[in-house]
Amino acid sequence: MKKYLKHTTAMPHMYILECCDGSFYVGSTVNLERRLWEHQNAVGSVYTKGRLPVKLVFAEEFERVDEAFFCEKRVQGWSRKKRMALINRDWNVVKEFATCKNESSSKNLIKI
Q: Nearest-5° angle of CA 83, CA 105, CA 108?
């Protein structure tokens, strides 16, 4: 991932909003400033419309729109704890949550 930019516009971004109920909304856009305005003015999404106000807690700039979109989809599948680690830039915790720990993991198979 690239560097954190809080209010850059006209570049693809993946972003995370914290809603007033403490939940997170993950999205992507090519104009972060406009998209934040849309969310705050209840024209952003059905999810955030009922959870105003929202605040930007993370943004990542990308070179291409498809990169931002794929990052959005990947982070949408993450647990709350892993998203919090990303927001806090705690890369060790992000890495820890990325490690498969279930019994079917190849690391847990008995080698003969």
A: 125
Structural domain boundaries in the chain: 1-77, 79-112
| Greatest extent of the chain over all pairs of C-alpha atoms, in Å | 61
Whole-structure pTM value: 0.80
Residues 6+ apart with CB under 8 A from 83: 16, 24, 26, 75
**1-77 CATH fold:** GIY-YIG endonuclease (3.40.1440)
CA distances from 23 to 51, 54, 87 (A): 9, 10, 13
Tens of pLDDT, residue by residue over 4-58, are 445 444 799 999 999 999 999 999 999 999 999 999 999 979 999 999 999 999 9
